[in-house]
Structures are given as C-alpha cells and as structure tokens.
Write a structure and sequence with these properties.
Layout (H helix, E strand, L loop, with lengths): L1 E5 L2 E3 L4 E3 L1 E5 L2 E6 L6 E4 L4 E4 L1 E6 L4 E2 L2 E2 L4 H10 L2 E8 L7 H10 L7 E7 L5 H12 L4 E5 L10 H14 L2 E5 L3 H13 L5 H6 L3 H18 L3 E3 L5 H12 L4 E3 L3 H5 L10 H6 L9 H13 L14 H4 L19 H10 L6 H15 L17 E11 L18 E11 L2 E5 L2 E2 L44
Helix pairs in contact: 3-4, 4-7, 7-8
Bound molecules: N-(aminocarbonyl)-beta-alanine (URP) and zinc ion (ZN).
Length: 483
C-alpha cells in the first residue's frame, strides 16, 4: 500500500516548493509532480513539513515525591495531536543505580508509546561504574548525557563530577546536556525566602533569578571547554544564559541553546496571580521571566545563537501541585506543552513575522535531528527518510483549552490562547495518526530511535585550546627544599 500527499507546498529547513510526497513502508519513497498512490491525502492550502521533534520531555518521571502524570501513552498522543512525531525523554538513574538497570526501567515505560522516541541518559552520581557504563549506553544508541546543576540533594552533580563526565563524553563522542542553574544559590535563597515567610509560588521565581542561570551556564561552558567537548544547554530562559552561549559560539565553541515554548510566550506575571493554584501550576525551573528575556530568546532563534524550541513537558495535576501549599519548595516543578508547542510557535513566531516558515521547521525539528545525529532519518522531507510528516493548515485555528486536550492533567498553562496554524494530517512512519481533531493514534506504534555517537575526539574547538596544552620545563638547577 502506498499513500500520496497531493497539492501541498513542502516546507523544509532550507527550501519551499510545490510537490507531492509518496509514502511506502513507513518511508518517503518519492517527491515530485503528479505522483500516484493507493490512498490520497489532499494538502491543498497546506504546508507539508517534517513532523516536530521535542528533545526534552519527562513522561512518568519520578520527581519531588511523585510521578509526572503524562506517561508515554498520553504524552505521545498529546505530541502527535500537535504535530510532534518524536520525543526524547530522560532516563534518570537513582543514586548508585546502574545506568543500564535504569535504562531497562525507562524502556519498560514505553510499551504504549504512539510515536517514535529516544532517550538522553542523566548522570546523577559519579563513580567507576558510571564511567564504564557510559560506553555501553552509547553503544545502545544513546550518545547524550544530561547533568543537573540544580536540585541540590537530589539530581544535582558537582563541578568535579561535571568535569569527569564531560571528559568521558569527549572520549566517547557523546554530547553533554546541562540544566544550568546554580543549585547551591537556589537552596540558600529558598531557605532565606521561607524564613522571611515567603512560602507562596511567587517565591519560587524569586529563588531562581536569571543570575543563577547565567552563572551556571557560564560555568558549564568553561568546564566543557576544558574537557574539549560540545555542550547543549536545556531550557535557556534568560538573556544572561543566552549571552554566555552567544559569546562562546562567537569564540568558535560548539554550544547549543534550547529555549522552551513556555519561556518564549508566558511571563513572570503568572506567579503573581491571586489564585494559588493558577500560580503553582506554572511553577517550573527555570521560572517564567519578563518580556525583555523573552525578546532575547526570540532574537536568539532569529540570529541562530539558539537553535531548538522544546517543552520540558513534565505535567503535574493541581492535586500534585498542592503538595507545596505552605512551602513553595515542595511544589513539583514542571509544566506541560507537548500538544501546544508547534501551534504556539507557529502563531507567535511565523504569524507575527518573527520566524520564517523555514526557521520554524529548523527550530521545531531539523536542527535537533542534526544535533542528536538522527538526520535525515528524522527532521527531513527527503527520499528514504522516515515518513514523519505534518500537513499544516495555516488557516485552522482553535482556542487552547484543557477541556479538549490529550494530556491527562486538569489544566493547561496556555488556556485561552488562540492559535492559528494546526495539523490537517499527521503521519508517524507513514501511518495516519491524526486527521484534524480526530485522533487515530495507536499505542505501541512508537519505536526507539537509536542514535550514533560522533567520531571521537569530539572537540569543542576553543581557539585557546592548542596554546594552553601543558608543557614540562627541563631545568638545570633545582634549589634544595627550604624545609
Ligand atoms: N523543568 C522543570 O521544572 N521540571 C522538570 C525537571 C527539569 O527538567 O528540571
Ligand atoms: Zn527537563
């Protein structure tokens, strides 16, 4: 059986042209004029684009005394509803737990995934076992390792562990990722705020000012430079962090920055809402910032100093958020966004003129496919690629509402936002999974996508590197010890 998408305009990261797309056995078989297939899908008035890739999700994640409520079934359904055809989730080993054992546990969660998925492995502790198992994790198709510089006493790793892990990544051709916030300062500020009686959700934002993110981003970049490895900074939310990335890139270092759709479009005023639930539902790390920071993130996407828009989808119900009544440090951190990322980015990016359609495809799909070494299997409309395709109707609109969403939680941080630009059809490896508002997803259809490491050594190419290599000086006379 073949399928053909007819009468549409193909939009990729670097081209826009009118052509039909023929699909067979889950892949793009041909692109051209007047193609014929067994089943036809009319894309008149639509853009035919690579399905979105969200490289930052936390589905059924154990965190802050509970589990995030969207699992691989509801989370991937939400993704597909909004035109995202692949997610990359995080495997989080417990302290002293084997990375391979944790990977098995995470893999067990994916049986009902409706779209393709991959993992990043988190480095949550350090030792000989972790050092050795990192190589096996890479061999299993996972050449990216996440490091939390925040969540002191839980997921956080210290600088010596960061440096050791970054060097190991360099040797393996793997990419280190960082959640860049200074966890020591956040802990101290949180304590101070609680002692002063600031225990509401707004104090969460006060405990994580842009400086804690800027400092950690600078530190991670310097440590990556010393280890000779590229770096990917997740959820860049502010100018301080963006500035560090921009500066490093200007110096020739390979540093990538990922803003979230939430930080691009929602601001800190949400935390001052008089309704405790409203504010707590928006508690995430880093917190929402002001309009100047948002402007910086949009400028970064336009200029290319930031490359990828993600969600960090980590959805907790209102009841879960209420664990933190009376103590903001106990509010589970995280917000949703998987279903809304593409429509909101299109509406606030393309429809406003901030992004071109090609830049939209780059930021929502192609760039991350390249960074994570799965291009052009993913993130491309090209013969031989997986037929992960979204047929995008730029005229379809809706008002976002939790009452109609696929996520299982009881609210939506974008509630009431009108979006124009929605999928008409979504294909996951050639299978029709969404037709406008009709969900045809199949739990279990999703497959793990194995990724290759870069050929080691995977240098960050700092311009200072070569001249700072250690030299031993041969001396003729060595003074006697003064003791
Ligand atoms: N971002 C957030 O608040 N929750 C998810 C865990 C993380 O990525 O920090
Ligand atoms: Zn995250």
């Amino acid at each position: 059986m073949t399928k053909v998408i007819k009468n549409g305009t193909i939009v990729t990261a670097d081209r826009t042209w009118k052509a039909d797309v023929l699909i067979r056995a889950g892949q793009i078989m041909a692109i051209g004029q007047n193609l014929q297939g067994d089943e036809e899908f009319d894309a008149s008035g639509c853009y035919v684009m690579p399905g979105g890739i969200d490289p930052h999700t936390h589905l059924e994640m154990p965190f802050m005394g509970t589990y995030s409520s969207d699992d691989f079934e509801s989370g991937t359904r939400a993704a597909l509803a909004g035109g995202t055809t692949m997610v990359v989730d995080f495997c989080l080993p417990a302290p002293q737990q084997s990375l391979l054992e944790a990977l098995q546990m995470w893999d067990n969660k994916t049986a009902k995934a409706a779209c393709d998925f991959s993992f990043h492995m988190a480095i949550t502790w350090w030792g000989k076992q972790v050092f050795e198992e990192m190589a096996q994790v890479v061999d299993k198709g996972i050449p990216s390792f996440k490091h939390f510089m925040a969540y002191k006493g839980a997921l956080m790793v210290d600088d010596d562990e960061l440096y050791a892990s970054f060097q190991r990544c360099a040797a393996l051709g793997a990419l280190p990722l960082v959640h860049a916030e200074n966890g020591d300062v956040v802990a101290a500020l949180s304590q101070k705020l609680l002692e002063a009686g600031n225990n509401g959700p707004e104090a969460h934002a006060y405990s994580r000012p842009p400086e804690v993110e800027g400092e950690a981003t600078n530190r991670a970049i310097m440590i990556a430079d010393m280890a000779g490895v590229p770096l990917y900074v997740v959820h860049v939310s502010c100018e301080q962090s963006h500035e560090a990335i921009r500066r490093a890139r200007q110096k020739g270092m390979r540093v990538y920055g990922e803003p979230l759709i939430q930080h691009l479009t929602l601001d800190e005023s949400e935390y001052f809402n008089a309704d405790w639930d409203h504010a707590a539902r928006r508690v995430m790390s880093p917190p929402f910032r002001n309009r100047q920071h948002q402007g910086s993130l949009w400028a970064g996407l336009q200029a290319g100093s930031l490359q990828v828009v993600a969600t960090d989808h980590c959805a907790f119900t209102t009841d879960q958020k209420r664990y933190g009544v009376g103590d903001f440090t106990k509010i589970p951190n995280g917000t949703g966004g998987l279903e809304d990322r593409m429509p909101v980015l299109w509406t606030k990016g393309v429809n406003t003129g901030r992004l071109t359609m090609n830049e939209f495809v780059a930021a929502s799909s192609t760039n991350i496919a390249k960074i994570l070494n799965m291009y052009p299997k993913k993130g491309a409309i090209v013969e031989g690629a997986d037929a992960d395709i979204v047929v995008w109707d730029p005229k379809r609109s809706k008002v976002i509402s939790a009452s109609r969403q696929q996520s299982v939680i009881d609210y939506n941080v974008f509630e009431g936002m009108e979006v124009t630009g929605l999928p008409r059809f979504v294909f996951s490896r050639g299978e029709l999974v969404v037709e406008e508002s009709n969900m045809k997803t199949r739990p279990g259809h999703g497959r793990f996508v194995a990724r290759e490491a870069n050929p080691a050594p995977n240098r960050a190419l700092s311009i200072w590197k070569e001249i700072s290599a250690p030299r031993r000086i041969e001396r003729s006379g060595i003074p006697a010890s003064g003791v």
